[in-house]
Amino acid sequence: xxxxxxxxxxxxxxxxxxxxxxxxxxxxxxxxxxxxxxxxxxxxxxxxxxxxxxxxxxxxxxxxxxxxxxxxxxxxxxxxxxxxxxxxxxxxxxxxxxxxxxxxxxxxxxxxxxxxxxxxxxxxxxxxxxxxxxxxxxxxxxxxxxxxxxxxxxxxxxxxxxxxxxxxxxxxxxxxxxxxxxxxxxxxxxxxxxxxxxxxxxxxxxxxxxxxxxxxxxxxxxxxxxxxxxxxxxxxxxxxxxxxxxxxxxxxxxxxxxxxxxxxxxxxxxxxxxxxxxxxxxxxxxxxxxxxxxxxxxxxxxxxxxxxxxxxxxxxxxxxxxxxxxxxxxxxxxxxxxxxxxxxxxxxxxxxxxxxxxxxxxxxxxxxxxxxxxxxxxxxxxxxxxxxxxxxxxxxxxxxxxxxxxxxxxxxxxxxxxxxxxxxxxxxxxxxxxxxxxxxxxxxxxxxxxxxxxxxxxxxxxxxxx
Length: 466
Description:
The chain is mostly beta strands. The chain has helices spanning 5-15, 24-30, 42-70; strands at residues 95-101, 107-112, 120-125, 133-138, 143-149, 155-162, 179-186, 194-195, 211-212, 218-223, 229-234, 242-246, 256-259, 265-268, 270-271, 276-277, 283-284, 293-296, 304-305, 318-321, 325-327, 330-339, 357-365, 373-378, 387-389, 395-399, 402-406, 414-417, 438-441, 447-450, 458-460. Strands 15, 20, 21, 22, 23 and 24 form a 6-stranded antiparallel sheet that branches. A 4-stranded antiparallel sheet has the order 1-2-3-4, with no helix packed on it. A 4-stranded antiparallel sheet has the order 5-6-7-8, with no helix packed on it. The chain is globular. It starts with a helix and ends in a 6-residue tail after the last strand.
């Protein structure tokens, strides 16, 4: 993705800009003619000189603010006339396909230099984005599997490389996929990487993955496309896995797995009413999951369905759940309901609607997720830009360039525009570092950061990658 023409022009104009020196006002005043007194009063001359000083200061101030706004370094208050206001970070010549943030200063991004087929580069900053350093480059034809840093030193990176095994149409058999994962580990913050000697996991060609509670302990959903689906557990960082239980028969294959602690885990399913087709083109009837939320309290051995008081519109439309978030016994469960576009037009002169509708909601629990209630509809979240939760009552949701905040668990909201029109926030749990530090990707190639809990935002200078 290349920068827009407007961005290129703006950067060229600002490249040679120098901040006005402190003596600029003195030099301007010195240029004011000091001709002999004309038939005006002394008071009039003082007024003119004072007006000149004020005008000079105003010009300097407006110039400096205008340059900072144009560079995307400063966000003016929303609601200003002539469309002024909104943070506008500079664009980059690549797409950010993944990122991880550890603090206000330390972050990693994975950038793909071309829309299709790499190369893909891992970059790191330790000064809040002022400078970046390349740490890993994936060659053309390879792709990103996943990456994760546990702290400033320890991390893993999985790279998908073309497989040399003969093709096979049997699910799970060697050669069934034309890509093989190679996992690298670093113990010095990405300066050096070691290829791990792990066997290729052909038993998990499509469902491998999972959730790690610590650097060593994690769980994953495992199994073949046509075989049993099981839950596996590791205590050595994924080198070895043991089966601890089965995925509930009523859960969908697209269930997401998370754990709150070593014993308590959650499976969240999605209920999609759309149809699939078989090899003959015949629609396959939709079979809804028996429950959208499952919980285990014995480390994944057994699972129990949870009762969710969903809105009435969820019965006939698609439902998508996020993983529950807990603050002690208080839990929040975010989900969305989406429906098809209307089949009728109120105004025949208008073009037909092509997009469906979407409503976002949050359920609350105060007993560790055993019971859910207090349904609240939210202005934004999930596909509309995401949400962050500071505690059980303080939520921050995004929708396009706007942020909407509640301090009373959704009873009242305040909304403000932060980004320039045309840009959109992308908030997720991994964007949140602590009560003050938040990173967010805005668009395919831009980053912003807040160090005061989202009250103010600044642009992050994107690295130059060749």
